[in-house]
Specification:
heterodimer, A: 293 residues, alpha/beta, Rossmann fold, Alpha-Beta Plaits, six-stranded mixed beta sheet, four-stranded antiparallel beta sheet, 13 strands, B: 123 residues, mainly alpha, Arc Repressor Mutant, subunit A, two-stranded antiparallel ribbon, 5 helices
Chain lengths: 293, 123
């Protein structure tokens, strides 16, 4: 087993009058690390809850490896959703949380859990509530990784970890993923830190998928065009401009889509500078409610 | 380490080519495994594997089953030949164009080249 595939078709979740998810259609291939990005309230946690079968969509469908996960015991033990906060019993000792988490998780690797807890100096006899925020996140992340679930979802588990801990945890995740490939969905606001770890990137905005692409393709998805404002305007007139910035007489426009080679040659001839758009900037443009124009 | 518009796997492949050309990696040397690469640079292992596949296709790296990846015999000369081919079109042509735009004469250019090539020879 190298992981579960994930499909959703038109999945919709309503809380009263608001749509937490609004017709989400998504395909995530098994055995890869997928990124789920979105601003606060974009619907990430709701989507992950559907995949973990904590809840059902009001309409639409969810399938893991082609099957409806809801109340499917086999699929549920193949799935692990960890969040940095809230889900774990705070008054229990770390070692008891560990023991509880293992029940019903046949692939749980005690050795890996011990290794990670030692590496991050987590006291096992202390209750979760008495650990620092960062240490609580380490416990959650450790449980997520050590579960070795064919569908592992890490929802903001980096929260509260300091930078060196985040880095070490990312290395641990990559090392274990290389040895034990599975489907991993990572949700984080720290886009620059995880960008190169991801094989695909899905961006949710207001409950809808605004983009779901191979990470490699994404790097060539956006282009900044910088130069004399009138020339930038003329060259980008027929393109999808998602952002503009003026610095005196110079304008920088951010366009989406891969430019045609002939267009690149012409832009070069006109003395325009072309640049890459970092994922973080692309994310900001795509999830901004301001009109680009 | 990673920037620019190229996909990461192409940047990794280019970094390895560079290490071979400068001699940091010698023919017959083992290169890092995809897992080592992934954890060292904190990138997805599939990305590292894609870079290796690219270099295997170019016969720069060879795979030894169950052991790992090694720099191929003749990799250095193959890389050098490919770079020489690209040198005039990709490196020199833009310089010549820029020189023309700045009004630098052919005589000035050749004088500069002669002086600097002599200095390289003296080293």
């Amino acid at each position: 087993m190298t992981g579960l595939s994930v499909t959703t078709r038109d999945a919709t979740v309503r809380y009263g009058a608001t749509h937490a998810l609004d017709g989400v259609t998504l395909d995530l291939a098994p055995g890869r690390i997928h990124g789920l990005l979105g601003r606060n309230g974009a619907g990430k946690t709701t989507l992950l809850s559907l995949l973990a079968s904590f809840q059902r969509p009001d309409s639409g469908a969810v399938a893991l490896a082609g099957r409806d996960p809801f109340e499917d015991a086999t699929l549920m033990q193949d799935t692990c959703l960890m969040r940095a906060t809230g889900d774990l019993a705070a008054d229990l000792k770390v070692r008891d949380i560990l023991r509880l988490h293992q029940t019903g998780r046949p692939r749980f690797d005690q050795g890996l859990a011990d290794h990670l807890l030692d590496r991050f100096d987590i006291p096992r006899r202390r209750s979760l509530a008495r650990l620092s925020r960062g240490q609580q996140s380490v416990v959650a992340a450790t449980l997520g990784l050590a579960s070795r679930a064919p569908l592992t979802m890490l929802d903001e588990v980096h929260l509260g970890m300091d930078a060196p801990t985040r880095q070490e945890f990312t290395e641990a995740l990559l090392a274990d993923f290389a040895e034990h490939p599975r489907t991993i969905i990572v949700s984080s606001h720290l886009i620059q830190e995880i960008e190169h770890v991801l094989e695909t990137v899905t961006i949710l905005h207001r409950g809808r998928v605004v983009l779901s692409e191979e990470a490699d393709d994404l790097r060539t998805q956006g282009t900044t065009v910088t130069g004399r404002a009138d020339r930038v305007e003329a060259m980008t007139r027929d393109l999808r401009v998602v952002g503009r910035r003026d610095l005196g007489p110079t304008r920088e426009a951010t366009v989406l889509g891969r430019p045609h080679p002939a267009w690149v040659t012409e832009a070069d001839r006109q003395g325009l500078q072309l640049g890459a758009v970092p994922l973080q900037d692309l994310f900001i443009h795509l999830t901004s409610d301001k009109d680009a124009a | 380490m990673f920037d620019g518009r190229d996909p990461i796997y192409l940047q990794i492949a280019e970094a390895i080519r560079g290490e071979i050309l400068t001699g940091a990696l010698q023919e017959g040397n083992q290169v890092m495994s995809t897992t080592q690469y992934a954890t060292t640079y904190r990138i997805n292992p599939a990305t590292a594997a894609k870079a290796f596949a690219e270099l295997v296709a170019e016969e720069i790296l060879v795979k030894q089953r169950g052991v790992g990846m090694f720099v191929a015999e003749g990799a250095t000369s193959r890389l050098r030949a490919a770079r020489r081919e690209a040198f005039f079109d990709e490196r020199l042509a833009p310089v010549v164009r820029e020189a023309a735009a700045l009004g630098i004469t052919a005589a000035e250019l050749t004088a500069y080249l002669h002086t600097h090539l002599d200095q390289e020879d003296d080293r």
